[in-house]
Write a structure and sequence with these properties.
alpha+beta, about 55% helix, disordered N terminus, 2 domains, single chain
């Protein structure tokens, strides 16, 4: 009994597609490269943004619950010079604001902080390798900034008022200077000044490359006395509302109080910024949308260009294999079989580019995240989108060459030279 031709096996189609790619290395590489660039651009951008967003959602709660911050400049800004020209918030303004809020919102906590890095800490002749961030705070700052005491106590109101040389250190400072002894009550030197340790903070880790444990805090009044020597230095104010329900009302009162402190007439805009965890996340989301759209536009242009390349390489492949198509049709291959063969070849080429683009996109995106000390992520959604999109590109741009191959007359094809 004569065996009927039932089409081409999938592994044969893959072998033919691979052979076509290998036979035309330069042309194939350029075609695949266009798809790689398109997939890479969107996967890399979305991987980095996904990693950063997860880190923000888990670690951006630098402010405590029901807390907002008032500062000279926004937390995220692209026009830094415009905000730097604003007058700084000095301690006198911060203290006056604190007293006003005590009268207007007795249940609200007001934090005053100022600081910078580059200080050397030492104990018993041993100096830390890394510089320490030194921050001046009041008695409410650790609470408002969601920091907890692991050993000892917080700085008190009297410590701030009388400028006592007491210090609360982060876990990195404790581990470096006191690896095997109790640090409480010990006197350390920080850039030539002596301080007595009264507390140690709980470990908090890193956020966006910023070490949250390699620092120490002293009374804000003492910091201003010893280190306030910079024209650009400004006090940061945090306000913690009694509850989430009171948040908006307390924020409105705080804005009014700050305008009084800054001496702003009713018609002038605020020369300070107010933000919370939610506003920081919203700002990042806006930036992420812009960056993501840019990545998608670049990816779309690259993928459309690559799709034209896929069509071109498939048209050339159809022309070069005209006699092969004629032989297959003369042996019983249906137009449908030829159509499927060339469509799958086009999809295969596109998927090769997708796999390479995804690999490098995930690697580079997570590489950017690791530079910012963000945990790596796998963007499964965008990987799936890339695979499906590339399959669609292979299908759409391979349709015309496949149709041409399927419609060939076997007699004419066999005569082709």
């Amino acid at each position: 009994m004569e065996k009927k031709f039932t089409g081409i096996r999938r592994r044969d189609i893959l072998a033919l597609a691979t052979g076509s790619l290998v036979a035309n290395k330069l042309r194939s590489a350029l075609t695949v490269m266009g798809i790689v660039v398109g997939v890479f651009s969107v996967v890399a951008v979305m991987t980095a943004l996904s990693a950063m967003r997860e880190s923000i959602n888990s670690g951006l709660s630098q402010l405590g619950a029901n807390t907002f911050e008032i500062s000279k400049t926004p937390a995220m800004t692209g026009n830094w010079w415009e905000y730097m020209r604003r007058p700084s918030i000095n301690y006198a303004q911060g203290r006056r604001f604190e007293l006003l809020m005590a009268d207007l919102c007795p249940g609200a906590l007001v934090s005053l902080t100022v600081g910078d890095g580059g200080y050397k800490a030492s104990y018993a002749g041993k100096t830390m390798d890394k510089s320490v961030n030194m921050i001046g705070i009041n008695e409410n700052s650790l609470i408002a900034n969601n920091r907890k005491i692991a050993l000892g106590r917080n700085l008190s109101t009297d410590d701030v008022i009388f400028r006592r040389p007491f210090i609360v250190v982060g876990s990195k400072v404790r581990d470096a200077l006191f690896p095997s002894e109790d640090p409480l009550g010990k006197r350390i030197m920080v850039s030539g000044n002596s301080y007595t340790i009264v507390g140690v903070l709980e470990e908090k880790g890193e956020v966006f490359g910023n070490d949250q444990d390699n620092f120490a805090v002293i009374p804000v009044t003492l910091f201003i006395q010893r280190y306030w020597n910079d024209f650009w230095r400004s006090i940061d104010i945090a306000v913690q509302a009694p509850s989430d329900v009171d948040m908006e009302e307390v924020q409105n009162i705080a804005i009014g109080a700050m305008r009084v402190v800054r001496g702003l007439p009713p018609e002038e805009f605020n020369n300070f910024e107010v933000y919370s965890n939610d506003s920081l996340k919203a700002t990042f989301d806006k930036m992420a949308v812009i960056v993501g759209l840019a990545g998608l536009i670049i990816s779309a242009i690259a993928l459309v260009t690559a799709g034209v390349g896929v069509m071109n390489i498939m048209l050339v492949s159809v022309t070069e294999r005209t006699r092969e198509i004629g032989v297959r049709k003369s042996l019983g291959a249906r137009s449908k079989d030829i159509l499927i063969q060339f469509l799958l070849e086009a999809i295969f080429i596109a998927q090769v580019g997708a796999v390479i683009g995804i690999f490098f996109g995930v690697a580079v995106g997570n590489g950017v995240g690791m530079m910012l000390n963000v945990k790596p992520v796998m963007p499964w959604f965008w990987m799936s989108v890339a695979v499906i999109t590339c399959a669609g590109i292979g299908l759409v741009f391979g349709a015309y060459p496949a149709w041409r191959a399927a419609k060939m007359d076997p007699v004419d094809a066999l005569r082709f030279e």
